[in-house]
Sequence to fold (194 residues):
Amino acid sequence: MKIIPGPATLILGVDPGSRHTGYGLVGSAGGRLEMLAQGRFSPPAAWPLPRRLAHIHQGLSELLSGHRPAAVAVEDIFHGPNIRSALKLGHVRGVVLLAAAQAGAEVYEYAPRLVKSSVAGYGQAEKSQVARMVAELLNFRGDLAEDAADALAVALCHAGQSRLGGLGSAPRNSRRGGWRGLTEADLAALVNSK
Fold:
């Protein structure tokens, strides 16, 4: 694990899923963003849903108590044709929100299109494009698990919204353009922070 010198704000991004719940911990200090941890919780698919939810809750609770992030950024539910999958995803999101609330972290929710737009500049970017941009923005040269890359993208979205002042009581309703609203000085600071 890397430690960022000086006071750092920790942001935990979470990409909920009943089979794989990705997480990514980003530290922000002096305009510099750095990945501190990434991974996923993958309970066995044969387990019943309540046991999988307990596994995800326990893993997140341990992660939250070990790192104490100031903010937990969670991807909001996307609209899809499969109601059963959406309901399972809602259960997982509930567990994620519960673990964050129990840890005393501020919780922010972001629509998938805003996350993609914030990181890749396009709200319908492919997962591979998002993963490449996450690695580029965090100057990371290793392998990112798909779910961890998505979670890191949510954390980066939150960092971008924070810099732009787009935070409020319901950040998921924000219509800001993510990184598009950055000034040239902001962009230079991001590029030079690597």
In short: Helices lie at 49-67, 83-102, 112-120, 127-137, 146-163, 184-192. Residues 10-192 form a domain with the Nucleotidyltransferase; domain 5 fold (CATH 3.30.420.10). The first helix runs from residue 49 to 67.
